[in-house]
Specification:
alpha/beta, six-stranded mixed β-sheet, two-stranded antiparallel ribbon, 9 helices, about 35% helix
């Protein structure tokens, strides 16, 4: 079994891609590896699953956006980046955006990290969602000939928090994102990479209604980057602390991928 990489490795994947070809990163916030597998079984990712090679990766110990986004754009963990939680925004290290490419960062409605390249923000309105804004501006950046496009789609994570990761509402948002990805891929010539920052697990509120959360479960035996069976959550129901282990892996196994048959050399 191949050792699962840290999310930090995505930095070198991106850096090597940029040395040779125009590159587009599709960053799908909250789409953990297990949610991806579930969506695949439910036919919610027909284009992405058919055209991308997808692999699990370890998110950092704190499975929330800020430290993991910092890791994917710098190749460093929190000890070096200084980004440990959602409250942290100022990086202590250089990032992929310091390389000086003709580039654009397309973000949601909030600046996550203070990078040298200022992101373009997208706010929900009566006529468009945040992710539709990111999608539309991705197509615009492609048309403008940007060499490096970094597009952060946020609404899968938003829906996961509101309805729970395995809800019909989340599947609907994943299908919509899959359609965005298909159109983007058909318009872009170059390398296309896909990445997520963390997954989400289900919890119940006081009304016994499902919602989603991540970054609040820690299982000591898994807090290092090691080999692990990607199907493990389906096999640990009878083990000690099975539910905590399952939630930990749902949060901490994110994903990365690239278009099949792409020449990234």
């Amino acid at each position: 079994m191949e050792k699962i990489k840290s999310i930090c490795a995505f930095y070198n994947l991106t850096k090597n891609s940029l040395k040779n070809k125009r590159t587009l990163v599709l960053y799908l916030d909250g789409l953990g590896y297990y949610l991806y597998k579930y969506a695949y079984k439910k036919n919610a990712l027909n284009f992405t699953s058919a055209h991308f090679d997808i692999f699990p990766q370890w998110s950092l110990k704190n499975a929330v956006t800020n430290p993991n986004m910092a890791a994917m754009i710098s190749g460093k963990n929190s000890e070096y980046t200084g980004i440990y939680s959602r409250k942290d925004h100022i990086l202590n290290v250089a990032t992929i955006f310091d390389e000086g490419y003709d580039q654009v960062i397309l973000e949601g409605d909030t600046i996550i990290l203070n990078t040298t390249q200022r992101p373009i923000l997208h706010v929900k309105s009566k006529v468009k969602t945040v992710d539709f804004g990111v999608f539309s501006d991705t197509l615009k950046a492609i048309e403008e000939g940007k060499y490096f496009i970094f597009s952060h789609f946020n609404e899968i994570d938003d829906y996961c928090h509101t309805y729970g990761p395995y809800s019909e509402e989340v599947l609907g948002q994943i299908k919509k994102t899959d359609c965005y990805i298909e159109k983007i891929c058909k318009n872009f010539s170059g390398n296309i990479l896909l990445v997520s920052d963390h997954g989400v697990h289900t919890q119940l509120n006081e009304k016994n209604e499902q919602f989603g959360i991540h970054g609040n479960v820690f299982v000591e035996e898994y807090e290092s980057f090691e080999e692990i069976d990607p199907d493990l959550p389906d096999k640990i129901q009878s083990t000690k602390n099975a539910e905590d282990k399952k939630m930990y892996l749902e949060d901490h196994l994110s994903l990365y991928g690239y278009l099949k048959n792409e020449n990234r050399n």
